[in-house]
Amino acid sequence: VQDTGGSSAVSKCSAAARGYIQDRFLRLLVGRQRRRAPLVHRGYYIRARAVDHCVQDFLLKTQSHPRTQILSLGAGFDSLYFRLKDMGLLHHTVVYEVDFPNVACQKATLIKRMKELSALVRDTGGEGLGVTAFSGEDYKLLGVDLSELSELERALEEAGLDNEVPTLFIAEVVLTYMENSRSDALIQWAAEHFSQACFLLYEQMHPEDPFGRVMQQHFSQLNSALHSLAQYPDCEAQQRRFFEKGWTECSVMDMNEFFTCCTPEDEQQRVQALEPFDEYEEWHLKCSHYFVLTASNGMEPSWTPLLSNMTVSHRDSPVRMAGSITAAVCAVHSESSGLRRYGHYSVLIKPNVILTTGGFGDEHGQHCRMRNFHVLIKHAGYWKAGCVKKENPDKRWDERLYHTVSCLSNSLALVVGGRTSPSSAGLGMLGLKFPETCNASDPDDITVELVSLQPAAEPAALRWRHTTTEVIFKGEKYLFLYGGRSAAEPVLGDWYFLHTQELSCTVIPVEGPVPESRHSHSACSWKGGVLIAGGLGAAEQPLGSVFFLRELEHGFQWQTVETQPPLIPRYSHTAHVHDGKLLLVGGVWFHSSSVPGVTVIDLMTGLCLDYMINVEHLEWPLMLHNHSSVFLPNEKELLLIGGGGNCFSFGTHLNPEPVSLSLSNILTSN
């Protein structure tokens, strides 16, 4: 548990060094400094932002009181006191910090050794008395085990904590490491023993969905299990907990909601522009698995730092599911570990032959950008998997992620866009040539030749997280290249019509209301045009709109597809059209109480139904974002390939095997 505190301090320090948070004191308190990934920086930014938002609100609301107190439980090497003191916010406030005795002693030694720290807090020489590790006029550092409540109470009393003045308790990922009976007792003690009290809690939630399972496993492996999750798995349960333990006011929100509602727009934009970033799914999933809670008792005026910013919460209505679809591990009669990847693309190049290219995954036991192409062939009722032989292996594939692959004929496919790193320019176009006829039962018979193309349309392809979809205009086939993002533009809203024979851009008139810019959306061919659904918009907010680009005599027209009930905004899903129905598969949305399964939209009536995916037959978490899917219309079977991602600091999860969903029930009953 103490190691998690040290690790958090290093991550906060790295975030401060990159400008996410303003904190010049962390580096003095954290010995080792390591650069963390942008995803980790964002995660620690939102944590620090939430705590600061609530602490400063408490100090503002209580500034007319002659004395106030802050009690930070399990404070570790946090710099809160020094930042508040430096900002001149502690005129009449005493800060008490409590942690394990050895942590408190280490921190006290650092404070005395560092001039910048000791200059801010005047040492009054009270250390060495009982559990006090350091004592200043307005700062007391105590070494006590929080789970020993009577000992904690005695130590705080000796240090001068007054239960009659307004007091803010802070527990930032602390209580969950204690047995529930002990953390509950602490919450109740704070409510009962202080006449004017506020409590700020920041912790994990949602242990049972795929991301939650990876998160739990991570903390268990660190031997620091999250005890509160089983009994208090979500925002509602935590709110009930505080009411039951004697708090009269309590509000709570997950961190997606906090970032959207409590962080000014210009600040959101500042943070989003600090580093090249392309891990939106994991950022939003991390935020949906942490919450900030504020509770108060006896405060005049009442202390509600979250309520004033709360919009109509997306937690108000749980997602109504029309039914469930059972997931089954796909019977693959050969080695399929090459399909453990995400950010890849899978395409049906012949009946029952699926080619998968690119992405990030597991190659020979190493996590890397994938060089190998992979093929799945269905023969005699089961799938065979294998690596594809490249005819010219020296030709650069560029190990791309978030590209698209479109079949132009029965022997040629076109790769469009993709990226290596999010800071580098998008990649152009590449041809994939394969034999017109091949033995459709043996993966070893499939060969692919990489063909360099320098088409005039190349500049249009320098993007990723876009879509390319076949449309027909005046009997001619075109690829409709739409949306995505580039190194320079975090979101694109432009489009191109790519003539499939000449690979040149053709100007075709388009009328109607232009959809807002987006990436990580889905696009499907339908009635000669294209259906665009969802995506991530300019403010990194999921979109719930569906558009149909419809063919007219002289060009195309954008039309809005109305759905009832409205489609829940999502992105990073896949999509297919079958028999007048649009199927949306997986993705990420902000409803933290559930994960997207399969949504079926009737394109005639607009009826929109959500189905959950029943994963009881899978022994591992099924993460359905950054995946690919292939629909086999004859069998009404959906094949899910790959998916997963880098789960914050909890490790990388890759879905280990392809999964099959039988959709015959929902496609006939709808």
UniProtKB/TrEMBL annotation:
GO MF annotations in UniProt: tRNA methyltransferase activity
Biological process according to GO: tRNA methylation; wybutosine biosynthetic process
EC number(s) from the headed UniProt entry: 2.1.1.290, 2.3.1.231
Pathway in which this enzyme or protein is active: tRNA modification; wybutosine-tRNA(Phe) biosynthesis
Reaction(s) the record says it catalyses: 7-[(3S)-3-amino-3-carboxypropyl]wyosine(37) in tRNA(Phe) + S-adenosyl-L-methionine = 7-[(3S)-(3-amino-3-methoxycarbonyl)propyl]wyosine(37) in tRNA(Phe) + S-adenosyl-L-homocysteine; 7-[(3S)-(3-amino-3-methoxycarbonyl)propyl]wyosine(37) in tRNA(Phe) + S-adenosyl-L-methionine + CO2 = wybutosine(37) in tRNA(Phe) + S-adenosyl-L-homocysteine + 2 H(+)
S-adenosyl-L-methionine is among the record's keywords: yes
Residues annotated as signal peptide: none
Subunit structure: Interacts with RNF144B/IBRDC2.
Free-text function comment from the UniProt entry: Probable S-adenosyl-L-methionine-dependent methyltransferase that acts as a component of the wybutosine biosynthesis pathway. Wybutosine is a hyper modified guanosine with a tricyclic base found at the 3'-position adjacent to the anticodon of eukaryotic phenylalanine tRNA. May methylate the carboxyl group of leucine residues to form alpha-leucine ester residues.
Similarity comment: Belongs to the methyltransferase superfamily. LCMT family.
Protein name: tRNA wybutosine-synthesizing protein 4
Primary gene name: Lcmt2
